[in-house]
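Example 3.2
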Amino acid sequence: MKRSPWVSTLIAFVLALVAGLYYTWIIDPVEYVDTAPDSLRDDFKSDYMALIAAAYASNGDLTRAQARLGLFSDDDPATTLAALAQQRLAEGHHESEARALAILASALGEQPTPYVQTPGAIETALAHQPSATSGAPSPHSTPRTPIFDPVPSRTPTPVSTAPFELQSREAICDPTTQQPLLQTIIYDTRGVPLPGIEVLVVWDTGQDHFFTGLKPELGLGYGDFTMSAGITYTLQIAGSSQWVTALTAEECEVDGGENSWGSWLLTFIQQSPP
């Protein structure tokens, strides 16, 4: 019986394929050596930067972190890391990872000159926060389903653990805010904004937390939490004994008679150790 030409061709192709795979996988496999981080895929770059931030959170070696970040062609790594912190948080990554990224972004963005506090230092810093019009909230809003389950996290940080004290509590009416917010601004003993501070929020049926520094465009010491109507919240800075109670999401009236969300702005100052 005469064999069809295409059968012989197919057999030859299969044998050549098997021989090629055997050579490239077993005899002489490809080895990637010294691949530059800047040539990685975007998601791999993000993972690499997250590892750099985790290493910095562990050892506090900023010089080494800067050298590692220098492998990327990025003129503003602080902004990139801050944006990545928000992105990883939105994608469901562990909050400790976002916190480490925010802390490294803060360290890279700090000015090298020492800070000297003056009597108006805190007031001046607050004046540069997002503008808001004070107003008395009036109840009227639609409930939003809160997140009940907190995400545990623990990341070593260079931030001092001295307790914090509430300095001001202000009901604000900001027409640019789409949802009612619990806004916090946290300073150290010198009046310098502190990123990476964990803030706890509890209510009758659940609890949650957030960190400062994840929105650097609003200040390194800034953090916020979206409230739901009809729920009364209590807030505490992690590691502090002071609770801020009776925080409720309500609406308020802005210029022109229109209604807007009323939010709370809480300012905390770190106390010097005894």
